[in-house]
Structure formats: C-alpha cells, structure tokens
Design a protein that fits this description.
- By secondary structure, the protein is mainly alpha-helical.
- It has a two-stranded antiparallel ribbon with strand order 1-2.
- A hairpin with a 7-residue loop joins strand 1 and strand 2.
C-alpha cells in the first residue's frame, strides 16, 4: 500500500470524519454540561459509569475498568475520582473481601446531579447529531451512531 493508495485514502478520510464527529459532539456536550451543571464530559461519564454499579458478584468496577470506560489512563481516572470525591459526588471505601481493592460509589448528591445533568447531556447529544447529519461527510456516521441499540442495563442498587 502506498500513501496514494485509494483504500488508504478512504480509511484516512473515514477516520477524519469520525474524529470530526466526535469532536463536534464532545464540544457541544462539554459546553452544555459546564454551563448548566459545572460538570465536564469526563466527570459526567464517570458519574454515569459508576452509577450503573450494583451490589453482588461483578457489581463493582476495578479502577482499570473505570478508566477504560471513561477512556482515561488509570492515573487520570484516579485524579478525576479525587476531584469528584472532594466535591462530595463520590465516595471511596475498601473492598470488604479484598483489602487491596478500593470501591468508588456515587453519593446521593452525585446521583442527584447526574439525574439533573442527564437531560442536558441527552439534548446536547441530540443537537450535535442533528447538526452533524446536515453535513454530507458525516451523515452516514450519524446514522450508524443512531442505529446502535443500548444494552439493557441492570437497575443500580445503592
């Protein structure tokens, strides 16, 4: 494959479009969450991921799993958890069966803020996708995003 190979050019073009769509969505959501709830996209994502934990086997996520879910390094995730804990939105405690493990849970204040911010997040996402759908380069990607069905999530137990 050479740099002018049509297949490589198509892949680069597709990646560029995907990156553009992601940037547009993240920017729109970031502005909405910051102005309406003093939350960043990453903070919202972390609260959302942790709110889906449940008691019982496999119910709590290890820090690496949380980091993967919010697409951050483990050290950046730890700093993010600390910031939200300082704001009273998260709490940490030792795993009762493995003293090396630390669980992070969303507090009642964190759950309330998440519930308040969710409609803002959803509206900003819808607006960003609607705007992107008017761009011919992004139409097929928007359709692909809209076609993804959310997995059924267990109800959180707190």
């Amino acid at each position: 494959m050479t740099a002018t190979d049509p297949a490589l050019t198509a892949l680069a073009s597709g990646w560029g479009a995907l990156s553009l769509l992601h940037g547009k969505i993240e920017t729109r959501i970031e502005r909405a969450l910051q102005s309406g709830h003093d939350l960043s996209v990453r903070e919202y994502s972390l609260l959302d991921v942790l709110s889906r934990q449940h008691d019982g086997e496999g119910g709590h996520l290890q820090m690496k799993q949380v980091a993967d879910a919010v697409v951050l390094s483990q050290s950046a995730t730890t700093r993010l958890v600390s910031r939200l804990e300082d704001r009273g939105l998260l709490s940490r405690y030792l795993c009762p069966t493995d003293r090396r493990g630390i669980y992070t849970d969303v507090t009642e204040s964190g759950l309330a803020l998440l519930a308040e911010a969710r409609p803002t997040n959803d509206a900003a996402l819808r607006e960003a996708l609607g705007e992107a759908a008017r761009n011919p380069e992004l139409t097929s990607l928007v359709a692909a995003v809209e076609a993804v069905e959310a997995p059924a999530a267990p109800a959180p137990v707190h």
